[in-house]
Amino acid sequence: MTVVPQTTGAPAATGRARRRIGVGVIGFGWLGQAHSRSMLRIPTLFAEREFDAELVICGDTAPERIDEAVRSLGFARGTADWRQVVQDPAVDVVVIAAPNMLHVELVEAAAAAGKHVFCEKPVGGTPEQTVRAEKAARAAGVISGVGYNYRWAPLVRYARQLIAEGRLGEITNYRGRFFSMYGSDPLGVLSWRFLVDQAGYGVTTDLMSHSVDLAHMLLGPITRVTGATETFIRERPLAVGAGTHYGRGRPEDPTGAVTNEDYAGMLCEFASGARGTFEASRSMVGPESQMAFEVYGTKGALGWNLERLNELQLYLVEDELHTGYRTVFGGDRFPYHGHFVPGSANGIGFEDLVVIEDYEFCRSVAEDREHSPGFADVVEWVSVQAVLLKSAESGTWEPVVSLREA
Predict the structure, then answer these.
(1) Is 155 helix (H, G, I), strand (E, B) or coil?
(2) Which terminus in the chain has less CB density within 10 A, N or C?
(3) How far apart are CA 88 and CA 255, in angstroms?
(4) Is the pTM of this model over 0.90?
(5) pLDDT score of 239
(6) Cβ count within 10 A of residue 70
(7) Is 250 helix (H, G, I), strand (E, B) or coil?
(8) What is the β-pairing status of strands 171-180 and 289-297?
(9) Looking at residues 126-144, what average pLDDT do you find?
């Protein structure tokens, strides 16, 4: 799709007038609110930007959320009908933060209306839905983005640089994991996230997607896998009203069946020849939000953990006198970090990563170029997910075959 520039505001650092980008948000829960806040923060953090984002319209089924979007976040208007968001002529970008199983319909409608689309992962609850969404955006010629926000952590970017420069030597092993406790309480209510007909698959969709996406970015494609899945908490209290996966029921409440997986584990081989292991769990006790990876090479190793996102563990064989891991603190010498705080070891947080990803997506729109991570990157993940789930049934190694449709 050919973008017709609209300009507004003061000149950017390049001397060009900034392009106006009208934003519509569908789904005003946690992440819908986070993206809305980030659009408001971008002007205060990125003076060099070439765009000005404008919050145009917010769609949600809860009247109190619509009211909050207009009153507190400054949306020009709100609606209970998502179709009004994608059809609004003042909207250039649609941000989708609705439940998983609504993603495909929303993406297809937004793309058909000529809107660029940023969708929170997983972009559909099943591999087949993700493939449909990617094909719709590509056919419409719109720019797509996906909420793989951990890619933008400054120390993750630095890890990528170290690997690309060969500082770790030949990469032999990779370990990725995402352990979260949000489903560890048996009294946690049966929200949509635990139901295959509303969320799609469980932790492979919700958590492992992040873990494998980072591995794809850092090491490249995966060629074959073997894996297993399990549901440890098989029934949960029924939710009152919509409910969220952080809600809690009572022992005497009626229960319903959990219909997707709590845990997934995978062994894999990368195209590079490296070997990898991945695990994801929402029901184990201990790790609160341990989205983490370790990379091992012939000249060094490194590791990063979301729970300590401002620290990178680094081991370099070249330092023969001082062996062992060192801690590299985040700071303004790494990309993006200095936009938030100066100096070293002054930390940034989760929503700062959302600001960075929204800034980068809007940059792609303003410059009329393909964005990464986009829907093509999600198809790379679901191609792995599909054979992981197949392997869990067959008990054998399965080759990864791209699901991308022509």
Answers:
(1) helix
(2) C
(3) 42
(4) yes
(5) 84
(6) 16
(7) coil
(8) antiparallel
(9) 96
List helix spans (H) across 93-195: 103-112, 127-140, 154-164
Nearest partner of 96 among 87, 365, 86, judged by Cα: 86
Residue 313 backbone phi and psi in degrees, to 5: -90, 125
Residue at token pair 């069946």: 257
CA angle (384, 386, 389) in 5-degree steps: 110
Q: How far apart are CA 32 and CA 75, in angstroms?
A: 12
Strands of 158-213, DSSP E: 171-180
What pLDDT score does 4 carry?
Answer: 32
Residue 129, both tokens:
């839905």
Of the candidates 105, 77, 85, the residue with the CA atom closest to the CA atom of residue 26: 85
Type of residue numbered 338: G
Amino acid at 361: F
Contacts of 269 by beta carbon, 8 Å cutoff, 6+ apart: 222, 223, 224, 225, 275, 276
Is the separation of the CB atoms in 387 and 208 below 8 Å?
Answer: no
Instruction: Quickly list DSSP for 30-89.
Output: HHHHHHHHHHHHHHHH-TT-SEEEEEEEEE-S-HHHHHHHHHHH--SEEES-HHHHHH-T
Q: How many CB atoms lie within 10 A of CB 182?
A: 17
Phi, psi of 132 (to 5 degrees): -60, -45
Please calculate the CA angle 25-142-350 and round it to the nearest 5 degrees: 45
Question: How many Cβ atoms sit within 10 Å of the Cβ of residue 321?
Answer: 4
Q: How far is CA 264 from CA 100, 204, 337, 388, in A?
A: 19, 6, 33, 9
User: How many degrees, rounded to 5, is the angle at CA 41 between CA 40 and CA 44?
Assistant: 120
Q: What is the pLDDT of residues 265-279, one digit of tens each?
A: 999 999 999 999 999
Q: What is the pLDDT of residues 388-397, one digit of tens each?
A: 999 999 999 9
Coil/strand/helix, residue 354: helix
| In the block, residue with structure tokens 């300009």 | 7
| CA atoms lying within 13 Å on the CB side of residue 49 | 32
Dihedral sign (CA 78, 83, 86, 91): negative
